[in-house]
Design goal:
It is built from 3 helices and 17 strands. It is mainly beta and about 260 residues long. Strand 15 and strand 16 form a beta hairpin. The N terminus is likely disordered.
């Protein structure tokens, strides 16, 4: 047994096996009970973590009584004391919201949407990816998923610019007034555009399929950045989902 424990410690130091795998090995050994107890004692002695590895948690929300996915549901991941401790997100058109690097612990998932009764579910996460399905009945009431009056900003693939081209991708324009032709995935509510990568001075505008844009003065090559968002106000808590930034260039040649 001493030699086995020594081998286990060395394998752990070399990161050749995960703790969960080691425990499984001992569970099915001839001396399962004594081996597992000894292994746990060694883990504590050497300061090895007993918590599970982080994983992804996907939450699918649909209307109760059917299988219709619900979009723009506010989903919070946290603890009973702080229901949004590990983040908040809005469901996409498929009714899905995903949280990455979820710690192994006992957590609470809260889902709320105007016009529906909010639901809350407890679960214990481990080192495996998991899908949680929540159904919301129509009505109102229940716990509200929010950000304590603040704003949660989540970069998400549930809304993105799939195609972007200034004036449909032409190389040259004779006028500074151009159009930002694009295609979007998801349901955006606003857009913003700027020649600055940090969008300084660019306010969010109501979404338009073909918005106009004024290029900066002076001939030459112009680089324009473009971004979409979906914004929701849920009982005083603001949630917004941002798309990745798209960009395109065009050359201004005024006569």
């Amino acid at each position: 047994m001493t030699r086995c424990v020594y081998t286990v410690v060395n394998m752990y130091r070399g990161q050749d096996m995960k703790i969960s795998s080691l425990i499984t090995e001992y569970k099915y050994s001839r001396q399962a009970t004594s081996g597992l107890i000894t292994l746990l004692a060694v883990m504590v002695l050497y300061g090895m973590p007993l918590l599970s590895y982080a994983a992804d948690l996907s939450v699918r929300v649909h209307e109760r009584g059917g299988n219709l996915p619900l979009q723009d549901v506010s989903v919070c991941l946290g603890t009973p004391a702080s229901i949004n401790q590990f983040g908040a997100a809005l469901t996409g058109s498929d009714g899905m919201a995903t949280f990455s690097n979820v710690p192994g612990a006992q957590l609470v998932v809260t889902a709320s949407k105007s016009g529906y009764k909010a639901e809350q579910q407890s679960l214990v996460t481990n080192n495996m990816d998991r899908l949680l399905v929540i159904s919301l009945p129509t009505g109102g009431g229940g716990p509200v998923c929010g950000s304590d009056g603040g704003r949660e900003i989540i970069a998400s693939s549930s809304i993105r610019v799939t195609q972007f081209g200034i004036n449909n991708g032409v190389a040259v324009t004779a006028t500074p007034r151009v159009f930002l032709n694009h295609e979007a995935e998801g349901v955006p509510t606003h857009y913003r555009a700027s020649e600055h990568p940090d969008f300084s001075g660019a306010d969010w505008q109501a979404y338009a399929v073909k918005p106009g844009f004024e290029l900066s003065p002076g001939n030459g090559r112009k680089l324009v950045y473009f971004q979409l968002r979906r914004f929701s106000d849920m009982n005083g808590a603001n949630l917004e989902v941002l798309s990745p930034v798209a960009q395109d260039t065009i050359t201004l040649q005024q006569r």
